Amino acid sequence: MPPLREVIARFGLNASKALGQNFLFDAQLLGRIARVPGELDGQEVLEIGPGPGGLTRALLATGARVTAIERDRRCIPALAELEAAYPGKLRVIEGDATEIDARALFDGKPHIVSNLPYNVGTPLLVGWLSAEWAPWWQSLTLMFQREVADRIVAPVASDAYGRLAVLSQWRNRAKLAMPVHRSAFTPPPKVMSAVVHITPADEPAGVRLDVLERVTAAAFGQRRKMLRQSLRGVPGALEALEAEGIDPTRRAETVSVPEFVAVARRLS
Length: 268
Description:
Blueprint: H1 4-11, E1 23-24, H2 27-35, E2 44-48, H3 54-61, E3 65-70, H4 76-85, E4 90-94, E5 111-114, H5 121-130, E6 139-145, H6 146-153, H7 163-169, E7 172-180, E8 185-186, E9 193-200, H8 209-221, H9 227-230, H10 237-243, H11 257-267
Parallel strand pairs: 2-3, 2-5, 3-4, 5-6
Antiparallel strand pairs: 1-8, 6-9, 7-9
């Protein structure tokens, strides 16, 4: 295959700010990202927003069978060249990943590996984490702005700890796989990035997601207030705190994921 920079020049693929695109050219870095999920030889992989196909190349080199969803039709000819170079290994779907039922594209459970466009990354993640459990995917290896990545993996009592941390961790294992410097991208974004790796765990019994979301929304919506104030509007929440032995004068950022789960279980 020709160098990625040559492909981009030939097809005139300047990164689109409107689509939240930032391209990666470093083959060594892309190879490291592709190896985060583990052995992918023969595995199905979903990639969102492949752009000109840098990460796609790295995934194909692992032996994975890749389904790539790309909204930017300018990138389709470049991806078609990759498709021809890896017959039967790459399937390119033109469309908006926020509108496509990706689950229906697979018979088995794919790994999702993506340098996500910044403007859709968090909504896609929330959708994948909010689906029925056990999930339809095996693992998530995703690039985010560093600030978002920190919020996903944040431990209790840290500045970044909030609703996204609880959603990401209550039935998953989430870790920061690697930081990525802004200079690695073309064009360089204004912020640093990081790759997050998420693998599913067992869902705690007796807990409804909508209840957990309601509790965390109230608690973190007024995170500087004591729980007895922020949860006052959630019926039964104060009684649940008492039953679980959680001091109502604490604030949301001091309440661990298991404690939020315990309160939600009481209310479920």
